[in-house]
Design a protein that fits this description.
Elements (H helix, E strand, L loop, with lengths): L21 E3 L8 H10 L4 E3 L3 E2 H6 L2 H5 L8 E6 L3 H13 L4 E6 L4 H5 L10 H14 L4 E5 L8 H14 L4 E5 L10 H4 L7 H10 L5 E4 L5 H7 L5 E4 L1 H5 L7 H5 L9 H17 L4 H5 L12 H11 L7 H25 L1
Parallel strand pairs: 1-2, 1-9, 2-4, 3-4, 4-5, 5-6, 6-7, 7-8, 8-9
Amino acid sequence: MKHGRASGETGVKKVTGRDIRFSVAPMMDWTDRHCRYLHRLMSRRARLYTEMLTTGAVIHGDRERLLGYDAFEHPVAFQLGGSDPADLAKAAKIAESFGYDEINLNVGCPSDRVQNGAFGACLMLNPALVADCVRAMKDRVDVPVTVKCRIGVDDQEPEAALFELAQSCIGAGVDALVVHARKAWLKGLSPKENRDVPPLDYELVHRLKRAYPEIPIAINGGLATIEAMREQLDFVDGVMVGRAAYHDPALLLRVDPELFGEPATFENCFDVIDAYIPYIERQLAAGERLSSVTRHMLGFFAGMPGARHYRRRLALEAVRSDAGVETLLQAVGEVRCAMERRELALASEG
C-alpha cells in the first residue's frame, strides 16, 4: 500500500479557504481507502477524510492496516477521536508520519460508543479541553490541525456553545473549523436521527465566519446539490458533503468544473468504472474480496434505466469469494443494455 506526502512537500503547512472549498465528510464504515480512491478518480480537488480512528487504535493497533492508503488519494485528512491531549499528540504524530495532509479532531460524533469514551460531540461541553487537545497536537506536528464540531449539544444555547468552542480552538492555534450546522442530542436520538432531526442553522455558521474572517470555516449538514453548495460558498470558505457524495457519487463529477472552474476528470460513471478497474484488480490480487471495493459503487447510475438491476446484481454476486472484475462488468452491462433498449424504444416512437 502506497502512502506518503507528494514530492516536494515539506515544512509547516496551512489550510486555505480554497483547500477546504469542497470536502467529503469522514463517515464511519464508508470512507475507507477504497472509497477514497474512487472519490479521487471523480474529483482532483475534493479534500478527502478518513473514517474516524481512536487514539488507542492508532497507538496500539495494526498501523499499516488501519492507516495505510494509496498516495493517489492526496489531499487526504486523518480524523482522530480522543480526549486525552498526550494521546492525541502521539497519535497525530503517527498519522503525520504516514504522510496525511491534515489531522482533524472529531468533536461532533454523537454515538453511544463515542460518548462512553468521553470524546466526539460530548467535547462540545468542554471547550477548554478541546483547546488543550488542539494545542498538544499543534506542538507535535507540522501538518494542519483542524476541528469538526456541532453547533452545540443537548440544552446548550447554540450561539454561545459554538462561539465558545471556536474561540477556544482559535486561541489554541487551530488551522480550520468544520461545523455541522445541527445540534447533537446525546440522549434520546440515535446517530442516524442526529443527522436529520435537529434543525439546521446555517445562519449561525455564517455569523461565526463573519466574526472570525481570518479562520477557514467549512459548513456541513444537509447539502445535497451543487446549487446549495454554491449558495453556501457566498458565506463560508468551504462545504463538506457526506451522504450525498456516497449515495449519488456522480455528484463528484461536477465538483471540479462547477466549484473550481477546472475540467471534469471523466464524462460519466461508465468512464470512472473503467478507470477504477486496474485498482480493483490490484486489490483482488492482494486478497481483498470484490464486495469490499465495489460496495462503494452501489450509488452509481441513480435514476438511470437498469440501475436497480445493477445494484441487485452487484450486491448479491460481489460477495462471492470467487467474484472478479467480470462480476462488476456484468452488473454495469445491465445499465448499458437498459439504456440501449430505451434508446431503441424512443427511436421507434419517433
